[in-house]
Amino acid sequence: MSTKQRQWVLLACVAVARGSVCFPDALPPEQLKQLKHPNGEEYNVGVWVSDWSAAHVVSQLAITLIKEKLGFNVSEGKGAGTPNAVYALTGCRSPGNLMEPQCDADITYFHINLESWVEDYPQLWMDMQSRYPLMAPKNLGLMGYHGRTSIYIPTPILEAAYYGEGLSLGYYRGYNVTWNDPSNYFDRMSSIAQGRVKPCSKTRLTDSAIMKTYVEITGDLDGVMITGEQYAGNCPDEHFWISPACRAQHDRCIPFFTGGDGWDIEGYLQKSTSWNMPMAIAVAASWTDYQLLPLQFKSLFYWWVPDPTFLELVPEEVMFPPFDRLKWFAGDRRVSSPDIPIDKVVSQDLSMLAPNVEAFIQKFRIEMASVNEIMRETMNSEEGVEAETCKWLRANEKIWKSWLPDETECFPGFGLYDLVEQVYVHDRKEPVGKKCQACPSGTFSSKLVDDVGVTYICVQCPQGYSQPSGASLSCEECHEGKYQDQLGSRTCKPCGLSHYQDARGQASCKACPNDSTTVRIGSVSFLDCGCQKGQIDVSSPEEDLVCHSCPDGLHCPVMSRTQSFLDGVATSASEGVDLGSDFVPALLEGFHCTKTQPLKIFRCGKVEHCPGGAPGTCAGGRVGFACGECMADFRWTGKKCEVCGETRVVWATAIAGILGGLALMPVVLLPGHTTSSKATMIFTITCVFGLLAHNAQSVAVIGNLNVQWPTSWSAMFEYFQILLLDTESTGVVCLSAITSMPRYVASTLFFPCALAWMLLVYGLTRLLPRRFQWTLNKTLNAMGTLTQVGFTTMSQIAMVPWMCYSHPNGESSLFKYPNTLCNSAEHHGMLVAGLLLFAFVLGFLALCTYLAWTIPAKARTGSMVHLESARFLVFRFRLDRWWYGVPLLLKGPAMSIVMVVATDHPRVQNFLLLAVLELFLILGCLAWPWKVPAVNTLDVQGSLCLVLFAVLGFFCSPSRTETESNFADVSAATLLVYMALVVLVAGSLSCLSFLWRLLTGEDQWIQRFMNLGWTPTPAEVVQELKRVSDRVLMTEGGQLQQRVGEMVGGDLQRIMYCIDLIDVDLFHSESQLGLQRIMSSIMRRSSLAEAPESGTKSLHDGDEKVTESLEVSPATTGIKVEVAEERAAPQSDLDSEVQETIFGPFEERALVKEEL
After folding, report:
1. Residue 914, helix vs strand vs coil
2. Which of 56, 556, 824, 1043 has the fewest other C-beta atoms within 10 Å?
């Protein structure tokens, strides 16, 4: 109960707690019960007593019996009239305030109102029933008699008018001022103190509905005040309402008094106006004033029967036109009032809270004579109404005992209960110890007719039924989707998953067909059944459920259907409601299907090309069954397809530039200076950028692993794909046909066509003057350099047709061209082109192997064309590692072949690639082949980064955890930053060192950069050489050989390498070709056991012969050189060019001879 409600109950309710009782066997106060609301609150039975004598009498009778015979505590509330009682029993918080009763509570503390004149307030009753259907009171019928209300006139006044002038004031026409002046027989309204009547604002004159009806019936607008939509009575002095008959002369008005808040005031307003009666209508300020005013003033007054108030005036009713039911209930009160049923009204919840109390009120019936008798005794006695009602109860036990309910006569909602056994029973053959008690949840109250009469028993709910509430008259069927397999249940059980129930009142559920399931419990139809998670329904709407396993690449939640996959919406088949996106099948990222064949799933070549989701969804406008390409005249930018536009012009210009560059390669790649073990700055820069390009190609190959690289990595690999002639990512696709095979064939022909172009240019230059002609050896060297640069690219391109990966639907596509199915006609054409290119790759590898194998022999025979043509293979490496070009070439095919092996098994593929990269890393560390230490270090660092990139591929599986993914991202970013720093530092130092030499002429910093540290001066080296050579010469041969034999193998190798450097770079002429220097070192080692004291070397090229004889004395450090030169006329221009290439121009050679 709220604070305001408690305040009202404290103010309006008087608890009945008197010390005396009426009956000797009455229950003591401590045993009296209280009502208990379902919310747990306890309170007394509330009796609302209307403020008139008959109501007080009958209410006191009921209160005494409820307390002393039924055993309930009782609280009283008092109000002026029936409207207040209706509001109180509805639970209104302010029932005394007719304007704002505040009827918004969900509990009432008043339950009974007797002597209720509900018939007088039909509109109020109907309004309360419609506005508050759960709280409005109910009418239990007549008290046992009818009442009547009307205008009454005291008999002395009636007789005075009749005998004085023959005026009949017992009839309404006698008051018509048109013919009579009845005011002469009544007191003036001015003689009545205003304090004894209520202000109009406190009465029903403020009821807008009453006053609006008054205007509609009478048309008297002057009698009301209208404010907006609200109507109120117009009282000139705020206390009396004046009828039109005396509105102009108030002293001619007859006073009329009513009580309460204006009992039946609407009828007397209409009567006075319609029948031209001069009336001043007022409401007594209190019940006492209402009783005294008619006795103290000559007036008309409202009265009813039964009531003893004005009996001493011997009042007579003023007669009006006969009662007309239609007019009366239409609001027209100008006719006589009807005989009014006097009813018993109870709250709606009394039957639940105290059914025996309601049964008592239901049986409560008393005759009007008994009521009048008690009222007369009360008026003539000083003991009061409680004492007089008690006397009547003691004298009329037979009457009131018939009102009390039988202990075993249960009412609906209740059942027989055995107090001893504390169980509900089904008969009353032994009535002792039995009483009625509300049926508990899980049961219902069933009617029982026996020899005694009618009663009710509690029966358990059968299977398929339940009852959550107590005091129920029936059990409720289990609705669709529910069942109950037990008796006496409070609730029904929902059908579990994989079950449904489409009928009511069932004891079990039905299983879904074909091992299907439901999305939730409580399914109501077999249409709610759907496939299990990981399956999809492939049936048509007309077919039964057909569940198939979900293909790889498709996410199939529970209830997956092919139609919901196509529509993108999952709906409940039985209810048609949207189940939400969680129940819609969806393609996983990296997979694609068409709308025409939604269950034929294709795996996309790159995950970012297929975002997944609905069928036919490709990223960035890509097309094809595997989102393998852009539409015609579009190119892929890494994020979306864009119109080619000016890309064609750009690439046409670029191709023209490439062709021009190829035409200059023979001129650029063979400089005039000789080759030695000492590297120049230009040479170092060339090696650095060549090595970076080679590693970039390797990164591009790693990017072709069938691994789900993160999106950020994929964007990086897109840029490196340019080095593999990726026609899509580079935009070259804009120059070719849209289909895959022409694009692939074009990529296979790129390098062969470039080589053919160089041969064509060579042939064309032979038609030009001699100084513009290409030499054959330069051309072959340039072609070898180009092929060597593109060898990894060609190896990768040749393997493309063999790199087939499998789709979930059983078919397979080319990894590079996902829209091309393997074993299709287009694929067969690509295989032919790939085989031809691979044959070319193997041929070039075989040629390079042959050149590396035959270089010593060719150097011995002096085949200059052979040596100069093979310069690309050896010039970058140390003199004793001339062969390293061949293993370096093998790296490209080895990585490409790995791409073919286990394309559908990324981890196997990744492992093999890692093995290849580690093999070449180890080989580079062992060989240390590059002339420049800085390049060797850069090579090892690049190889190590490639190995780490391959390792990170193991962290890019679809099942990777978030921690693994974050680790891989951070590691990749670190590697990229490190590689970028290495490239930046190497390139910057190379360029800055070169500029420093151009500007200052010094190469100290250059040497430090290339050699990764301090370099001794020539004088320091010569001094140390002489010191060591002196010690060697001073040591006896046997002792020296013994000490050398005690050294480890690695040290012996280092000593031989130093001897090679001294022998080749210090004691050969600068005109001698570097390749020959290398071969001299090799040949010298092979004949070391013979320990020759002299050696002779010859160079032959055409008809020109140069012979050099070197004699070395073991006892001295001096060197004697004899040069014999025999010249013969050159046989051709080519022979002259070769001589110039080997030895330099003739003038330079003569100068060398003279110096020697």
Report:
1. helix
2. 1043
